[in-house]
Amino acid sequence: MPEAASIYKVDKVLLVAIRDNITDTDIINLQEDLSERIVSEKARGVVIDIAALEIVDTFVGRILAQLSAISRLLAAETYIVGMRPAVAMTLVELGMDLPGSKTALSLSHALRALKAKGLA
Amino acid sequence: MTAAMTEVSRLLQEDFEEVVDAWFATQKREGVRRPDLFSDRESRRQLSDLLRAFADTLGRIDLSQSVDVDAEEWSDLRLALSEITLVRAERGVAPWEMTTFVLALKQPVFGKLNERLRDTPDRLLQEAADFGRIVDAFAMHINEHFIAERDEIIERQRAEMMELSTPVVQLWERVLTIPLIGTLDSMRAQEVMENLLNAIVEHQAEVVIVDITGVRVVDTQVAQHLLRTAAAVRLMGAEAIISGISPKIAQTMVELGVDVGEVTTRPSIRAALAEAFRRVGFAITRVEDTRA
């Protein structure tokens, strides 16, 4: 069975792909895995791809905010990419507009931004 | 045909033109004639169509039953009626005018009835009561029908306005704009957000200009809608610029305590476009000075 979320290393950037059927436990595990990988791989950039995510609730929204906050603390710039319109509207409706997180249209946009800063 | 209504039916057949004239005169007196909307000829034609259908219907209904305008016997009258309500609703006649329009039929018919049945007060009373019942039911129906007709017109116009008023336009590669016009209520704000976010995906846009030059009033609610739209745009990975903020709107927003936070604002769409170009890496340069 494929993992609900996978972490890949692309150059110096960690790419996190989240699948739609992700559960609350998966997401807590992901938080742990990601923070450890950032430190062990000395990553300076993290891209969280949520294009597959069709439904979000306050919990997922909070975890997304936490993931970027943790990465930032570990000196990795974090981009959330590929958010669907419906997901963006729901998050805004819930009042969770992820104020501390950076966003980009797609993975390539985020990689370009990270490269421009010499982090990828 | 029930015996009780014979006289009214006969009256409507024999004195048809007179009743139309009197009905018309009563409407004039009641102030629901609307000469600004309908010519005398058109009004008279409407009245005689309606009265003819009414007279035909009277001959068919059974008065011992309760008056049910939705019943089969009334179908001709309902048809004649719907034509008249449609033109009246479209031209902006008020519901009370429509009701008075019908009720004005009572007076001429009562007058005629009185002339004919003066010697039999019992019958006079009976026929007048029955006729009153029918006209009342008819007026009630016309009122309901009229309001339904108007609601339909309003709904149609609203839908048309909705479609017209939220076009997302691509200004340049990766730059979109949505010019907002009129009022921005919750429903339209939702529509605007949906259209805009979908267009961002479609065009892979990085900057969107939300232009509020045409928005009549900016209150706290409108400001909230704008900021939420900007927040959703940011979540998608694009940036929003709110343009068309007039000096007056700027003052209002500050007085209302609206904090736009990180959202970029520009007074004009021109300034916003320059900023958008800067962000996506374009610049406008003058080729040569063409002015003399």
TrEMBL record, chain A:
Lineage: Bacteria, Pseudomonadati, Pseudomonadota, Alphaproteobacteria, Rhodobacterales
Native species: Limimaricola variabilis
Name of this chain's protein: RsbT antagonist protein RsbS
Domain of life of the native organism: Bacteria
Domain STAS: residue ranges: 3-114
Record Pfam families: STAS
Automatic annotation (TrEMBL), chain B:
PANTHER family: RSBT ANTAGONIST PROTEIN RSBS-RELATED (PTHR33745), RSBT CO-ANTAGONIST PROTEIN RSBRC (PTHR33745:SF3)
Keywords tagged on the record: Phosphoprotein
Domain STAS: 165-276
Hydrolase among keywords: no
Source organism per UniProt: Limimaricola variabilis
Protein name (record): RsbT co-antagonist protein RsbR
InterPro entries the record matches: Bact_StressResp_Reg, RsbRD_N_dom, STAS_dom, STAS_dom_sf
